[in-house]
Amino acid sequence: MKFFPAEPRYKVLAIVSGPEPQRTALELTLFKELERFDAPCLMVRGNPGGNATHKFGKLEVVDHLSSEEMNKAMLESEVIIARSGYSTIMDLAVVGKKAIFIPTPGQPEQEYLASELIRKKIAPAVEQDEFSLQYSLTQLDKFTGFRRSKENQKLAPAVTSILHEIN
Question: Is the pTM of this model over 0.70?
Answer without folding.
Answer: yes
